[in-house]
Amino acid sequence: MKPLIDSHRGKWLGLIFGTVVLMICFLLSLSLGLQNYSWNTLVRALVSLSSNIASTNQTDLIIQTARLPRAVIAVVVGANMAMAGVLMQGLTRNPLASPGIFGINAGAAFFVVMSISFFSVNSLTAYTWIAFAGAAISGIIVYVLGSTGREGMTPIKLTIAGAAISALFYTLVQGILALDQRALEETLSWISGSVQGRKLEMLAEVMPFFLLAWCLTAVLARPMTTLLMGDDTATGLGMRTTWVKLSASVIIILLAGGSVAVAGPISLVGLIIPHMARSLVGIDYRWLLPYCAILGGAFLLLADVGARFISYPEDIPVGVLTALIGAPFFILIARRGFTAS
Amino acid sequence: MKKELDLRTSYYSASLDMKALWYSLIFSLVCILTFLLSTGIGDYYLSPVEVLQTLIGAGDPRMELIVYTFRLPRALIALMVGISLAVSGSILQSLVRNPLASPDIIGITGGASAGAVGFLAFASGASIVWQPIAAFVCGIITAFLIYLFAWKEGISPMRLILIGIGFNAAAQALTTLFLIKSPIYTASQSSMWLAGSIYSSSWKTVHLLLPWLLFFLVCTFFIVRHLNVQQLGEDIAKGLGTSLQWNQFLLVIISVALASAAVAAAGPIGFIGLMAPHIARMLVGPIVSSYLPVAACIGGILLLVADMIARTAFAPLDLPAGIFTAILGAPFVIYLLYHHGRKA
């Protein structure tokens, strides 16, 4: 299928246009909510933040400590989930692949809830590591399960393995929450994926991993595209496919695991956005990855703004909204079938 | 040559595999024994013989109180839910021709759960009797939607499973949404229920579930031989003249009805619909009508045992039985994927 934007110049222009849209979404996320702020107020709050003077104005403080972290985390998590999704889809040749569907979110969630309930862990650093471990473990389980057998890894086996492992981990989470009132109250909004009430320190904790992952994606973009031609061709072209696959897996774990640690399991962003990006710019990962990042960030920002208004004045977790938007999308792709892709 | 027993009347005829018959008999006995054991075990221990005495009316008043008021409804529900899930899973698996299909994996259980939690969140004023009905209605709606969306010049098994997984995601999101919208007390009640527990069982639930179960079991009995043909593949089934889509439709309805009733009674108890048919198939062989009774017994046994562990092993804590079926079931899925992958 021919991508929507075909020319090189068009893709650059699209990238610039996308960045502008992303910035507008960011400002919308800052200004809209229970209280709507004007541009002037926003600018003043941001200026006073950057000039490093302790602000005494209450509006400024709300913007700086509540709205700004929320928007920044939404951008980063949205971008990460989308990039993790596009890498997974390329790696597994499965149009339904995404951290949510393949049990990575559920695994991270289970390990974090377990550590809260059984080991009374409550440090942010610890959550991060636990979420990474959980993401890695469940990712490996699903991958191994989906690749066992003579016919090797098939998209359908992977998807079903992911669903089964997700079901297991979510049942266990449910069981823990049923027994532990405290954990229930602490994790109810986290478990459904939310960017509300998160602090920038939480992001700072995982930022080094994200930076590492982003640098790696830049290096990996070209080999990933080559890999799409098939293992044999890629090997013939002198590529060491095992290394590429391994580093892509590490990136996925870093992006998805870190994002779950910050925002909880936000599902299906990693499924929707890669498909949109592919229809825009085609299959070249050098374009696909930046487009995914921008679209993913903008999408989660907008979804989060929507989540503030859908049952106004109550905030609902953005993860619920992305799942509700994403599910029909998933069904659509599943209906189209694997052969078409 | 296989030993078979032929049953023929003017309306119904069947050849019963003797091996299957023996297994059915053995597992029914084990199932009854587990049932008696489960009824007897607890804070105050009664031996299976004592339970039996009480059941035939020869027990003392205290034994009667314990058995009839406390233990029996719970054990009965565990048994019935186990059977429902196992039969539902057996039908789905042979219909879809995939050992991984089960009501919980393809989202029917999820839809029913969303209905039940939504009911708790929004209609807390209404009588709790309506909760199972809410679950049931939502289970049926979900199944209908899955079927509708999976339809594309017929139903392809794989498409059905994948679309079910999609619906499961949506149902889970809705469930979380309802959980968040409900007050914290209701939320904790819901999450107990969501973990799959037979905690709040009463005779009322038994009376609600029993007619359903019996009705659909009888339906299954009459329709099950079409499933045998179905298993050979769609082309062969069509060639043999079975009215394919109509039978598929009826079977899906039965399967959903059983699964939803189970969810309504005990919450989303996972993996039994997956495990029981599979174990039965390993023992008896791949013909549905032969292994179905064995699967039903195994389903009952599994849930009775899970519930027994759940309420006694960590006493005084009464854990949701669903945790234990999940712990039991997950390694089983792993084994299945491995094994199935090797065979295929």
How would you describe the overall organization of this protein?
The complex is a heterodimer of chains A (341) and B (344). Helices cover 77% and strands 0% of the residues of chain A. Chain A has 341 residues and is mainly α. In chain A, helix 4 (104-119) runs antiparallel to helix 7 (181-191). By secondary structure, chain B is mostly helical. Helices cover 75% and strands 3% of the residues of chain B. Chain B has 13 helices and two strands; from the N terminus they run ββααααααααααααα. Chain B has helices spanning 18-40, 48-55, 61-96, 108-122, 130-150, 157-181, 184-194, 203-231, 234-239, 244-266, 272-284, 288-312, 321-343; strands at 4-8, 13-17. In chain B, strands 1-2 form a two-stranded antiparallel ribbon. In chain B, strand 1 (4-8) and strand 2 form a beta hairpin. The longest helix of chain B has 36 residues, at 61-96. Chains A and B meet through helix 5, helix 6, helix 7 and helix 13 of A and helix 6, helix 7 and helix 13 of B.
Give me the secondary-structure topology.
The complex is a heterodimer of chains A (341) and B (344).
Chain A: H1 8-31, H2 39-50, H3 58-92, H4 104-119, H5 124-147, H6 155-179, H7 181-191, H8 200-227, H9 231-236, H10 241-263, H11 269-281, H12 285-309, H13 318-336
Helix pairs in contact in A: 1-3, 1-12, 2-3, 3-8, 3-10, 3-11, 3-12, 4-5, 4-6, 4-7, 4-10, 5-6, 5-10, 6-7, 8-10, 8-12, 11-12
Chain B: E1 4-8, E2 13-17, H1 18-40, H2 48-55, H3 61-96, H4 108-122, H5 130-150, H6 157-181, H7 184-194, H8 203-231, H9 234-239, H10 244-266, H11 272-284, H12 288-312, H13 321-343
Antiparallel strand pairs in B: 1-2
